[in-house]
Design a protein that fits this description.
Distance between the termini: 116 Å
Strand content: over 45%
Largest sheet: 5 strands, antiparallel
Radius of gyration: 42 Å
Strand order of the largest sheet: 1-5-4-10-11
Helix content: under 10%
Number of strands: 28
Number of helices: 0
Amino acid sequence: MRLLGIVLLFFALSPAALANSTGQVGNYCAGQFVNPANCTANDVLFEEFEVVDIIESCTQGVPGEAEVVFDAIVVSNSPNRFGIGLFVNLEGTSAISGDLCLHDYLSPVNPSTNPADWPTEIVNGGPAYVAPFPNINGDQCGDVPGNSRVLKRLQQVRIECADQNNDGFVDLSACASWENNQNAQCNSLDEAIPGTPSKCGCVMVTTEIAMPAQLTIRKETSDGDDTFEFETTSNPTFDPSFSLPASFSITTSGGEGSEDFGGFVEPGTYTIDEIVPAGWNLASATCTNGDDPQAAGGGVSLAPGDDVTCTFVNTPIEPGMITITKATLGGDGTFEFTGDLGTFEITTTSGSGSNTVTDLIPGAYDVTEIVPEGWTLTDISCQSDDESGTSISDATATIDLAEGGNVSCTFTNARDGTIVVEKIADPDDTDQMF
């Protein structure tokens, strides 16, 4: 049964079935007791490891290791077998030839040799003997009756997170050993070993412990380098305490940079949002598994054991330019402008003058003329051959500059007219008020 979370599995077992393990951890793999151990028989085999508790997942504590408690289910495919030994490799290698194993056995044993006194529980839909374990020949090591199953709770162990079959879940090499001879006596853990080099059966058992995923964020730029900031949200599937850093940055060099979270990311769904700096476009954001890392309510989904790279590609924003042209009727003058292009003046010569501002990023720019005394602003008109747009209100032109846009706006002013009244008196030497 494969679980989709860090779950504590508690079977309705009797207190005796939950007795503490009597195993030892160290250089106790099967080959240390019988050399060479070829383990070619399959009379007794490990059927399954059920997770009872995960103290530390593969992404907690020591990265790449897990601290767990298992229930081991062992199945007999033959007549009665005696003095059962259990070997579980903890370093991701072989339970026969490895250097670090848990060695355990079926203890405590039932004081009775009467099968009617041996307790069973329903485990995964079928009966299994539980502690105190069947005692067929009256010694101190538990036995496995023919064609039956036994459940033994193993002690808490630290295991290497290794995925031998690449299915995204931790695999453990495990061997069961036995004696065929009912008269062979086993009275301690050290005697629960293979009766001969072949009297052990070994299998690779897939557990319910999820392998961590690997996530790499790559940054690619064209025509320049910069520092790019990112923000994340985390929704881990198994371990709710895990999260990516809330924010991180990548500085490119030669158009490349990356942030490698390594192979210790909890499976789950993560959003990676780039805070695009001024002067740059985010041209694309894609992941090798096809996900959009910035998708709202989603992001990149990491299954157990995944290795995913998400690449953010940025291109520099093509700068735009705005030209303000001043046209006058009836003379020349100096005209002041304010707004998003700053404050500047244009002095006309022969009725014309201009000011050009370059290296502008896309966006809205207000340009307002402060109409001088003696002049009237008669018209504002703007032209562009790109996607830029403009709007006019009183003495202000609002320019929506597109990337790489080139906009020209002309402010036309007419000098105000004057009336001169001249009085001529004849004779001119007469003082008179007119």
